Amino acid sequence: MKRPEVSPPQPWTFPAPRSERLDNGLLVHTFHRPGQHLIDATMVIDLPLAAEPAGVEGVSTILNRCLDEGTAGHPGTTFADDLESRGAVLGAGSSYDAAHVSFEVPATRLAEALPLFAEAVLEPTLDEADVRRHVQLRLAEIEQQRAHPAHRGAQAFRGAVVGSGYRASRPTAGTGETVARITTADVRAHHCAHYGPQRATLVLAGDFGDSDPKQLVADSFGRWQRTTAAVPHETPLGDEPRALLIHRAGAVQADVRLGQFGIDRTDSRWPALRLGAFVLGGGFLSRLNRVLREERGYTYGVQLANTPARHGGLLALHASFRTEVAAAAVAEARELIRVDGDRAITAAELNEAVNFLVGVAPLRCATASGLTDQMAALVEAGLPSDFVNTHALDLKRVIADEATSAVAQLMPPERLTLVVVGDADALAGPLSDQGFALEVLTDQR
User: Fold this and answer.
1) Exposed, middle or buried, 229 (CB in 10 Å: 0-12/13-18/19+)?
2) Looking at residue 149, what is its pLDDT?
3) d(CA 243, CA 265)
4) pTM of the entire structure?
């Protein structure tokens, strides 16, 4: 038997959607994908969390979690029953920049299920009992997250690196104090003030057969006539570096984050930074993972995450280390982030990063849900549909010196914020010896 030849990958581009606007202002992007018999849809509503009243932050999350609890046309559990009978699934959530409602249904049931999707967005009942239940569930969730080192560390890191005056410095789903204040009237007012077609974009992908997706959407969403005022997006700034040690008595591991406020995809340095961060900590064979996991055995894995928002972003190393080696691991990680002199990013490392990041894009968009997720993310960030293609070209143009410079500028080791969740009795001394001016916090539960 002759071994098959492996040919070079074929050129790929992110497909252009069919983009149309309904008479009520709703923008619709559709991707017809023959053979994809599960239709995936996401409604993106331009609703930054800065629109939430300060005293009831988290109201967007409670609203989203109530959308499938019943509608004017299908009150109570009849909505869930009818949705399930059509093989459809509904979900919703919020980021700092937008609300999104997702929907999946077999292509053969799209026409009969799409009106249910519209009902959830347009006319949820938002009953008192449902709102109170989801408030209580969210309060329990907050307690669980505070007890989990990774969640606690992530929240503390965000609060430390983003200026405290910005909504982006606080949890997306609100704090215990603000969530406890949320009433049914707050949830209904938030829906009335912000869920309107002029601020919404619907993305659909799948095999539509002979049907016209725009007409199907118009039949279901065309009656949506509410007028809502636009809400400006905040442009947060980073804060001064800090070193926080959150005490967990007896913890055998330390959850560590080391990084700072970053840049978004509109910054000219974004392609270079994305590649540089991947070389340092984006892959299994990255510098950080190779040394701290493979050579030292300090951790099961370490990652340098580069997470952009609409404006700015977070750039952070994250790992869990055994308590007895955590301080040494932090010190070594800080040195591994340095890219000066002979530690500069090499052309070989850059080439591997480019091949991976460019090569994985088609795989992430191979399904209807992958296409929808990617397009919804672009809409949320205010980016055009061809950004994926122009970004791929930009990645290929980056040279090693540019990637090195981007990392050096945006992640200087001496200017990074450290957040550690672990046993302060064991960690405070060793971390202080590394030069960190620690603030030790003890959670009051």
Assistant:
1) exposed
2) 96
3) 28
4) 0.94
